[in-house]
Amino acid sequence: MSTTSLAIECNAVKKSFGNVNALKGATISARPGEVTAIVGDNGAGKTTLIKCIAGVYQPDEGEIRINGESVTFDSPESARVAGIETVYQNLSLVEDLTIWQNLFLNREITKNLGVVKILNRAKMREESEAMLKKLDVYIPSVRSRTRGLSGGQRQAVAICRAVGWGSKVVIMDEPTAALGARETMKVEELIKKMKAQGLAILLISHNFEQVLRLSDHIFVMRQGDVIAGMRTKDTTGDELVALITGSAKRG
After folding, report:
1. What digits encode the pLDDT tens for the residues 148-172?
2. Which CATH number do you get for residue 18?
3. Strands 84-87, 169-173: parallel, antiparallel or unpaired by DSSP?
4. Beta partners for residue 20, in sequence order
5. Beta-strand (E) ranges in 34-186?
6. Is residue 173 domain-resident?
């Protein structure tokens, strides 16, 4: 496969914190319109890798490429400008703000009132409704305070915020870990809709059933290395466990 057909590539990425080698040369890639899962035990390097992709950390060595072009991010904002959005487990929503305010946080639309710029609240509410409609998310009103939403609704708002800004890659870190079965199902439907829209989705999850259900490709990490990569249809939950624990190897 040519590199231009990949939405994102990480080539031999290394990251250390003092004497701790969190990443020892991780290499992964993800295609547009696919869910690519990254699995591994706690401390395997998954979180460090996605934070390098998201601009939270800068790699010590290695290269990150977006649509075939080498990129360097010095902040999460620079990663967002390049089309990388991250939905963390804690969501990073402000509970006392409304839904539309959360969707446009740090991206407020303004209009001129003479020589003064003021917030264009009506425009932001209108576009917020369109963002939710695009992913078929039901929220009674974009004027609702976030603290009154269910866990699944909050996750839906966070996903809409990630998708609504011309994203190329959406990173999802344990997106359903704190949700019940019904809300998990709704979030998984949103992930499928993002995939259908052609986004590349990086999914970090300890739920192997979910990984096998949603993903197209899986990378397995252990002790800072990517030790295996395979198409989801070519593996099983038992093999993933064996690879993670070190009791099996892939040729």
Report:
1. 888 888 888 888 888 877 688 999 9
2. 3.40.50.300
3. parallel
4. 17
5. 35-40, 61-66, 69-71, 84-87, 110-113, 116-119, 169-173
6. yes
Q: pLDDT tens-digit profile of 215-242? A: 999 999 999 999 999 999 999 999 999 9
- Please check whether residue 90 lies inside any domain of the structure: yes
Torsions phi, psi of 51, nearest 5? -75, -30
- Residue 202 dihedral angles phi and psi, to the nearest 5°: -100, 120
Residue 116 covered by a domain: no
Q: Smallest Cα–Cα separation from 243: which of 44, 84, 73?
A: 44
The total domain count for the chain is 1
What H or E segment, with its residue span, contains residue 128?
helix 121-134
**Which residue segment(s) compose the domain that 215 sits in?**
3-94+166-245
d(CA 45, CA 222): 7
Token pair in block for residue 119: 């917030």
Give which of 75, 2, 59 is closest to 26, Cα–Cα. 59
| Whether the Cβ atoms of residue 138 and residue 196 lie closer than 8 Å to each other | no
Is residue 223 assigned to a domain? yes
How far is the C-alpha of 6 from the C-alpha of 32, rounded, in Å? 7
Amino acid identity of residue 95, one-letter, is E
Q: What is the pLDDT of residues 45-61, one digit of tens each?
A: 999 999 999 999 999 99
Please tell me the pTM assigned to this model: 0.86
